Amino acid sequence: MKVWLKSFLFLLLNAALLYSQWSQDPTVNTVLDKPGNQRAPLIATDGKGGAIVAWDEDNGVFANWVDRFGFRQWGNDGVRITPVGRIALVTNIISDGEGGAVIVWEDLTHAREVGTEVIDIIENEMFVQRVDSSGQLLWHPSGVAVRTKIDSTTAFNFEMVTSDHEEFIVVWTEDRRHPYPQSLPLDFFAQKIDLDGNLLWQENGALITVDGGLVNVRRRVVTDGAGGFLLARFGEGNGNTVVERISSEGELLWQPGGVPVNTGGAFDMDSGGQGGAVVAGVYFPGGGIVQVRVQRISPNGELLWGESATVVTDGADLDTSPHIVSDGHYGAYIYWDAKDLNGERKGFLQHIDDSGTILWSPIAVRFNVTSTIHPFFISDLQDGMILLAIDFFGTSEGQFWAVKADFDGNLGWTEQGVLFRQRPVNDWPFVFDVV
């Protein structure tokens, strides 16, 4: 099986480079091709216009470095990250700041399936490894155990952040305090690892205690820029989003229960600069109105865009799930779904400045939640944003499109965007990652 790659920053920043492996034909993409099955590719920047890509196979996790010209630097097959004989699924990858990467995987080698048809869990483990720019493993050959097997419990929803590429924090959800058959409520745990592979918090992770008995499945994690992180989750009662800040020592810094940001549910969060965050959500004030709200929260837990947040629109689609990304100036770009004046369902873009003021007239783009799979919303590193999505509406082929807008709302590639990958339905990239 083939793992298809097309890094957007490669395409955008290096399209003019000669003698490269990158193709400008959307039906021809750089491919990592080897015997067997390759799945779930994840990508991290190498800091030089290229990337390190990690994926899992039937016999473990592998990685390869693709340089800025599209050439594979660690051989055709890449390098093995996990020991031989491991049943492993790659979950996260992040740059180590030195041309290598830190890679997290879920290990099922010693797993035992526990449960019934109603509740079914797998007793998994979690490991992390660092690989340098030459493809050499820098930590223990078996990886560093972030979480070892705990009877009748399972861990999932792994995320990884760093403030300085000197220390890395892995955050996950699990049922350790309420093992099967109870399994609820769930809790958050975290572990910090330094560049040498030393675990800095307690064995099997530090419990991030939050008030209430909610099923804490959905959450977002971003760095606070000071060695800790911010965590967004559902609050009690009306499902309002709550943000917690956790220090570099793993301690909660704000009020018990976190700070409600009044953006509603279906939330997304990004770093807001200076240790804070920007949050977007869907809010239902009544009367059939569906709002998209955004809020900026300070490093001290203060709501900077008013108690009721900034209302981006009163006409969002009921099924929308907004996306948000920082604009690099303490404001944010937002994406949501709605119907245009002609009743056609589309995606919309908006820009909010550092005071919470709406800057644009909403910009309609070709995507919407009913015609796309897993859209990505990222900074273009030049004060603008890029929206990327697989569009399958009305076509028998999987088409990957990109739309770009600058700081002032000018569409660099038109509303239609740029088609950069097109394949038959049975060859779609269902799992994808972006840097």
Summarize the structure.
With 435 residues, the chain is mainly β. Helices cover 2% and strands 45% of the residues.
- Broad shape: globular
| Main β sheet profile | 4 strands, antiparallel
Cα end-to-end separation:
23 Å
Q: How large is the count of helical segments?
A: 1
What are the low-pLDDT stretches, counting only 5+ consecutive residues below 50?
1-20
Order of strands in the sheet with most strands: 3-4-5-6
What is the arithmetic mean of pLDDT?
84
Cα Rg: 22 Å
Structural class assignment? mainly beta
Q: Helical residue percent?
A: under 10%
Task: Give a structural overview.
It is a single chain. By secondary structure, the protein is mainly beta. Helix content is 2%, strand content 45%. It has 1 helix and 32 strands. Strands 3-4-5-6 form a 4-stranded antiparallel sheet, with no helix packed on it. A hairpin with a 2-residue loop joins β21 and β22. The radius of gyration is 22 Å and the shape is globular. 42% of the residues are buried.
